[in-house]
Design goal:
This protein is mainly alpha-helical and 155 residues long. The chain contains four helices and no strands. It is elongated, with a radius of gyration of 26 Å.
Length: 155
Amino acid sequence: FPAIPLMMINFGNRYSLLAGLIRNLHDTVINEKISTDDSARFFRQIASLRQRLRLIAIIQTCSALAFIFNLSAMISLYFGIDGLGSWLFFSSIILMVAAMIQFTIEIQIANSALDVRISGLEEHQEWQDYLATSKLRGKKSRKAMPSPSPTSPAG
């Protein structure tokens, strides 16, 4: 199980990233006057972040326990206590499966949170104007490019 510490680092990084998102969201809500539409979006984001934090805490706990159980299993097997070693190893596998299931759920929640952000972007008129002008610029640049002409044989 050498991947367990790497997974724990990954989960720790996700936790740190969420903490940064929460701080930014807090500063945005406190420092800016927000509309009722934006406040509803912020409340959905807060609920999503809170749920994700809980899941990451469970994931980290399961991973840490799995690592401890795995190390204990190796020690038990080293000292010839096969029954305990087998039970501890099996328990560490179950804990890792639980952590991976929770991680999958957390990813789904993160995707839903991104959908909320995207819907917020789509509602802002500035974004719609930007998309409309970028489409026009793309069409104009394609018309401005000369079409490839057939090459005539040199002779």
